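Write out the bound-state structure for 4AD.
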Amino acid sequence: MSDNRTIVTNLKDFAGQQVTLAGWIYQARSSGKVQFIILRDGSGLCQCVVEKGKIPDDLFVKLEHLGQESSLTVTGLVRAEPRSVGGYELAVTSAEIIHPTTDYPITPKEHGIDFLLKQRHLHLRSSRQWCIGKIRHTLIDAIRRFFNDNGFTLVDTPILMAAAGEEEQSLFKVDYFGEPLYLTQTGQLHLECAAASFGRVYCFGPTFRAEKSKTRRHLTEFWMVEPEVAFIDLDGLLRLAENFVSYIVSRVLQDNKQELETLGADIAALENIKPPFYRLTYTQAVEILTGEKTAEFMTQQLAQLNQQKETIEKRIADLEAKQTGQIKQWKRDKNAAELIDLHSRIEELNTKIENNPKHAKLAADFNWGKDLGGSDETIISQMHDKPVFVTHYPKQAKAFYMKTDRANYKVVLNFDMLAPNGFGEIIGGSVREDDYDTLLKRIEEKGLKPANYQWYLDLRKFGSVPHGGFGLGVERTIAWLTGEPHIRQCIAFPRMMDKVYI
Ligand code: 4AD
Ligand code: MG
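---
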């Protein structure tokens, strides 16, 4: 190994110099005279060019026989090559094989999502998972930066809880020395105590919900960041949330543009994410859902979906015809990969086409009083190009801790933030009920045991102040930013109701 050991992202500092890279074979092809090895080293990809005659013949042959994901070090001259991945390539002069690999189970050919989830321990090395992981890293760093720079103090709230913070049905029970405890659904209740000590606080950790819904938006274990602020009203919370989301989006755009591009994210749409966001009351949202405009919107959408399907079907027919003719192997492989992608897009479109009339009907028949369903949120968010705040939900549809609007006792001072272009809810938050008697009544109405909430009620006895906060789901935010259809791809090792593979 030469002293000039470096990583792919630093190659730009070594043009014209001899360096050593260590990594895994991502892809390789050989013409017999020259081999092109795409090396993956964790920081990026680099094309390594191995010419026959420039390295010992036996090494040339050994390299030629290495399978995908074999590990090795390669030494060579760095040269700028704009056509190459990353803009630099390595003219190889020597190599050391660390671990030759054969039969790596994940090949560039077709793999269904179930297969890939079972292979998650290996699939993490794929370019998609790598890009998502890098974006997640930036997002989490940006979340902490925002709160740390804005006078918030981090407070770590417990994971084992004696009582529910959200819906009781979604509690995971744990045997705690023979007594039941629950995995936390939210850090909020403890955070409210801390807000009375520090003023502005946040917690950030894993949260757990025994969600029985197998949807693209639900995990049973997900990461949530929750700020909580003393002396704040609903308007202040909305401004905090829009500044926060705008900041984290701008950081991901700044640090991960390339990854967003690789993932096919809508960068122009993300560049548009700046305050102010749209504001609707729940009642206005219901008027939109049941109105003429939504009915028209859904009809138009159905026509567009059918048109997209037709275009893709034509492309499929075209490619399939080409595959039966005489073409080069690499072209055949490329077409095959595109065909897989197109078929999965047809499947997605079919689901959307099938759901469109059902969702249109659900929206048209929506009655004031219910919580917005996933499809209702999707419709509203599809009609907007920036995030939408939906505020003032009916009291009966929401959690016990939300403050009753004193100007309208039927609603609470809460909000959901819906990410735009059809993504749906990424934030839920509210002003908290700060009156002792009203809160006690709400706890009883919800069938919860006041004894479990004595400490929480105490906050309303000793220097109670208007306060509130919200929770942002990390995986949902990543899915929105990256355009990934399912949030299970947005955490390294997902936990879902029916699937925990590794
Ligand atoms: O709307 P939720 O349930 O709000 C709370 O938990 C409040 N206690 C937060 C607060 O005010 N401090 O959840 C907040 C966010 C949702 O908007 C969503 O992004 C995410 O958490 N979330 C989930 N993400 C993935 N899988 C699930 N099962 C989720 N449930 C909620
Ligand atoms: Mg919610």
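---
Residues 109 and 333 are 8 Å apart (CA to CA).
The mean pLDDT is 95.
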